[in-house]
Amino acid sequence: MPLADNFFVRAPVSILRLCFRRLPFGIGASEGRDRDRYVRAARSAACNAVSAAMGFAVVLLSVSLTLPYLGQERFGIWMTISSLAVMLSVLDLGVANGLVNLVADAKTSGDQEKLQTIATRGVLLLVVIGAAAGAVLVGAVRLLDFQRLLKIESADVTREAVESTVVFITLFCVNIPLSGVRKVFYGLQRAWEPHIAAAIGYFFSLPLLYLCNRYRAPLPYLVLSTYGMQVGTTLILVWRLRRERIFRVHRGIWLGTGWQDSRLLLRTSGMFLILQLGMICGSACDPLIVSNILGAKEVARLAVAQRLFQAITVGMAMLSGPLWGLYADAHSRGEKMFIRHTLKVSMGVTGGIAVLTSALILAASPWLLKVWTGNHLTVPFPLLCAAGMLAVVEAMGNAFTIFLNGMSELRPQLLAVLIFSAVSIPLKVCLLLKFGTVEWVVWSSIIASIIADYGVYIGLCRKQILAHASLGPLS
Q1: Number of neighbouring beta carbons within 10 Å of residue 197
Q2: Where is the signal peptide, in residue numbers (predicted)?
Q3: Is the CA virtual torsion 89, 94, 97, 99 positive or negative?
């Protein structure tokens, strides 16, 4: 039975259609499309909620079950390796993100052959990129001195860290083309299906984490039990695309028409590549900076504080993520009223929920940490305050970034990311060296984000960006 055709998906969709039937979105011919877009977004958000809940359960168990037997140093190493998923995401060269708008345009045109060509060429290109990245990364791991880089005290732990990194890199390179598959579903405005696949992966990770705890499994098994399950269950989506003949490999796939779209994909991918590089330099390398300056043990405190507020960033991404394909579809049709209304609602809801949730988590943090980590790790309150504030800033920034992606407005993002990276990296190093406490790496990200976002989006590019919603400035 197809993933989206069972009772548990159809019943909520019927309810959502009733809820949206009386809403005054759209005018004339666009009215039905607007309601249908919101139903798709709500369906994606509902499935994402299940996936996020399962993912949060995995995060909780990955700390409470593994920290006691791993110890602070090995746990910090695991968190550092896990952070590589964000740092290395740049290796897809931006092709996965570039697929979203092209797939949305092809779907809007109703040209099935064009849709199949774009999706298949994009995923096959990512297969080649993944294979090349794997060869380079495995060779680089063999040359690095992990014990010196991460300040590891034991040779046995160093060996375990190397093995875990090789396992992670293998999974990551397999995931590069699979990330393109997920983005195809975003462009089709069917983001709920990747969320369902992710939820299945989280579901199987839960008993595997319990077994790892029971048998004191080494770090490579923990990587397989968490990240490995997410990679494995994404294969369900490949089967879905093949069944619908959207992804179809044949000899003539590179000989047909549509090379103009392929060139556009490469240009857009280049922009996304630079954006990803900037974000990695600015924020995703935090564990490596902290580990190199303060030691691997401080990475554990940073990881626990960030994961405590992860429900905010994941939850807000759950609400705003499905809007990317909707924005792109409305942009292709020139339906600015939908874009304007959706942007206002998205930013207002995201900001309000993020601030409220962050305050509640911060107030309950002593009890949450006691239940979660016991007496195995102490997290300073200033670090918790910084992590809560960063979660709000990131949630608001992500909602606006989804809008910009749907409008194909990548140049303002590029400028903002360059400013963010130029400010945050030296600021983190200077403040960590001066004060010697881990919370300053988080405050540096907050300061740099505010400077970059306000300077570019509100100062330099305000008119250009708001032109997509026209009807005068947003109020």
Answers
A1: 25
A2: none
A3: negative
Q: What is the mean pLDDT of residues 451-457?
A: 82
Q: Give dist(CA 112, CA 99) in Å, integer.
A: 15
* CA count, 13 A, side-chain hemisphere, 4: 17
- Inter-CA distances, 79 with 51, 88, 212, 385, Å: 21, 15, 16, 21
DSSP secondary structure string, 301-336?
HHHHHHHHTHHHHHHHHHHHTTHHHHHHHHHHHT-H
Query: Measuring CA to CA, how many Å separate 130 from each of 88, 180, 208, 242?
Result: 11, 11, 27, 20
Residue type, 149: L
The arithmetic mean of pLDDT across residues 20-34, rounded, is 50
Q: At 259, which amino acid appears?
A: W
C-alpha span between 262 and 117 (Å, rounded): 9
Q: Which of 271, 298, 269 is nearest to 286 (CA)?
A: 298
At 447, list the tokens.
């300061």
pLDDT for position 263: 67
Q: Is the pLDDT of residue 203 over 90?
A: yes
Cα dihedral angle (342, 343, 349, 353), rounded to 10 degrees? 140
Q: Kind and range of the H or E element at 442?
A: helix 439-453
Q: What is the DSSP string of 159-173?
A: HHHHHHHHHHHHHHH
CB 45 within 8 A of CB 322: yes
The verdict on pTM exceeding 0.70 is no
355 by Cβ neighbours in 10 Å (0-12 / 13-18 / 19+) ranks as middle
Q: What is the pLDDT of residues 44-60, one digit of tens each?
A: 778 877 887 888 788 78
The answer to whether the beta carbons of residues 210 and 262 sit under 8 Å apart is no
